[in-house]
Fold:
Amino acid sequence: MIKTVLLPLALCASQAAWAQRALTGRVFDAATKEPLIGATIRTPDGQVGTATNTNGQFSLTTSATELVVSAVGYEPFTVTMPAEGLPLRVALNPAVQDLQTVVVTASREAQLRTDAPVAIAKLSPTLVQDTKPTLLAELINKVPGVVMLNYGNEQHAMGIRQPFGTNAYFLYLEDGIPLRPMGVFNHNALLESNPLAINSIEVVKGPASSLYGPEAVGGALNLLTKRPTAVPTASVGVQADNYGYRRVQFGGGGMLTPQLGGFVSGYVARQRNSWLASSDYDKVSLNARLEYALGTRTHLTAAASYNDYDSQTSGSVDSVAYYRREYSSPTDFTYRKTYALRARLTAEQQWNAQNQTTLTGFFRDNSIGQNPSYGIRWRAGATTATGEVNENRFKSYGLLAQHSVRWNWLNSRLIGGASFDYSPTQYDAHQIDLAAQLRADKKSVEKYSITADRPDLAIADYDTDLLNSAVYAQLDVHPLPKLQLTLGGRFDRLSFDYDNYLDKSSGTKTFQQATPKIGLTYDLGHGRGLYANYSQGFSPPGLTAIFRKRPGTGVATPTGEVVPAEFYYNLQPARFYNREIGGWASLLDNKVYVDVALYQLDGRNELLSIRQPDNSTDYQSAGKTLHRGIEYSLTWKPTAELFFRFGGTNAVHRFEEFALSTKATDAVKDVNGKQMPQAPRWVANTELTYKPQWLRGLRASLEYQRISSWYQDQVNRVRYDDRTLFGARGVSVLNARAGYSWRETLEVFVNVINLTDELYANAATRGNAPTDRTTFTPAAPRTVSVGVQYNFIGKK
Structure:
């Protein structure tokens, strides 16, 4: 009897054991082919499951015939078990309309966007790939509340909760490391980046100084570079436009071994005889990245980037040339040359489920040489002028350490870290003499030419040993299951020993500041939530401002007496206080997502440059400013073929208390209550994308950019309010894009920027004197870019 019972049981057990299979596989992004970390693989009943490691790999033993694969921000996918002995490869498609994306910039660690009590936007890999940008501005302008202006040849200005311009209140990062050290002027730093190496872009709006330190005031922009792909990939392509731009590009990577992967990308670009005179340029840009897994808990990343840039800088034009669309350049001798080499080595250690440590060492080697058009000084009616030639060089040696720990108590997480950045810096600038060929009305210059190089007339000449150090911490706790409280703070100390060779002085200057943050998020359920935060930011004056001679000093008087040079040693750090509330909502069965933020940013000692009659700059670091607005975005996917997005901001940027002059003879002494220049009230960007199911691989989109009119000067005498597309004043333009990918192998695309060929300016500014004239930075006329790219995607 016993044998009769045991025999069937043994047979059943044997059959069950035989049905169990050991499966290995890899999960990756269908668009980028990058491995997905933490993707979940489970049986349909949820009884058995596992997650992918840092290389997107997993192993699982199951008898199921199907598996469900899912990841945050991606559409779940059900797969059938492969044949015995074959690995499983799963490519997940991004859920492009999903707010539940993973971001890293808000807390320096991966978290859901909806867990971050800040206004943060992410440009997804799909959006980056579909845009096929020639310039980074074509991507950044898609972020709600952000304006990146194209000043030509990848040069740019920025506006995030600030008037758009070239101030240093925005922090630019690559994989969480600043592109340039704090205190070194970071305007145009993004031209030292490689758009082809970018996987995604995250933009934190408002002060992020509690985590990232000085300059992260208006916002922080983080370029996240491409990782080694889970399967072998390679691509090569060409791109060109109708105005002499040519580019050859390449990229590729994969897993060299199960533990070692690499990715490299780059391009060589050249422009000749463009629509704007004296705007030729050359650029070589390369990025490389290696990742190595030392077991399941230790991960190493080595990354390097190289950028060599050499460009003519055509400068702004007067109203005569602008409205005639002559696009001539008053200077054919100005230039900008940059060399940037960056490298980092990162070690990540996952001690256990609760503790993780990251340690990064980094190095920078930069030189920026230029004969800038903005350095030209000319007084109305004069037939002579002056310019300058300058060069800034620095090397950086830095270390960033961070540890995070999680507790079951109130579902808490604590992140703490410290950073150290030592950057010896040298800067020198000297005068050049110019002849000014005037127009017939004698009120503007048609062309400048160099008459003498004057290295004997130094404008700036200094060396510094810049030392930035900081400690920071952020605590997330859940006093209620759906309520998260975030407390953060950072203490920065920026100091430098200096030798100023112009006034033969030396010494040490120090700026230090604590910047706190407190935030709340509340999950209302069903894809809806609210957040609020209070944060502070600060930014010390840049070195080039401190060691710049004040206008009217260090020059000879008509009697031959030399006025002693005075410098901006007493400039104070700018401080900002930000309050904001916001929320998000998923509507209509997750087809519509809405994101809104209301903010007020109060500035104290905001560093502003006051334009003088000869176009020189008088720096002032005093007074109070107000930046208040509402930012909003909406995405809507009405069908599987259509995707619509809309984002914008309505804002006021105003002087509250700001003294232009204390001289009794000056007609205007303050600008209290006036609007700040280059500060439009409304900015919007919207796009409709069509990807038909009847022809897989085809895409087409139409994008609309809107920037309302703005004041050109600080005294609010003159506005830029030209009519453009649809009769709208300011900037109103359409861009169109289309492309076709044949089986992911051959891609062809065409982008048309400024589809209707509008005449508009990326910048229009003038001084405060009644006799000052407007200078325009013209935007490009209709530009047609075409490209072809061949892609290889392996099977392993």
